[in-house]
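Q: Here's a chain of 151 amino acids. Please give me its 3D structure as tokens.
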Amino acid sequence: MIVYKVGDLLDAPEPIIAHSVNAQNKFGAGLAKQIAEQYPDAKREYLKYGAEIGWNPGDIQYIWIGDFGKDQWLANCCTQEHYGRYRDYNDYNAFYKVFVELSCFCERHGYKSIGIPKMGSGLAGGQWEKIAKILNRCIAHKPIDFHVYTR
């Protein structure tokens, strides 16, 4: 189920926070920039993955961002081959793969919710309504809630 919440994703209590990244190994604008400032290891690991393995749409990288009182992961979800502004850069097929994998990760770890922004609808230029329909199809029979954070 999709649940909308007003708030900052980076303050979210969910055990996983996920966001969209591109396959060009660029992590310096929008939400990614904010994540890099708060969690420098997240950017470092993203760049390392890109240099050593190479990003492809649909890939997910999980990075532990928790501490002794907080069980939390960050999921870098590759949903765009390229990046830029003023057009839609999303690979909508990648969203299917990403949402199914995020749900499976939750099920394997016993998590019941994930925090996300309106993925793909910021700098990537996508239509959230279209992405939300994909998300609903992917989680229709899953016991996982996707908490969509808006400010």
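Q: Can you summarize the key feature?
A: The longest strand covers residues 73-80.
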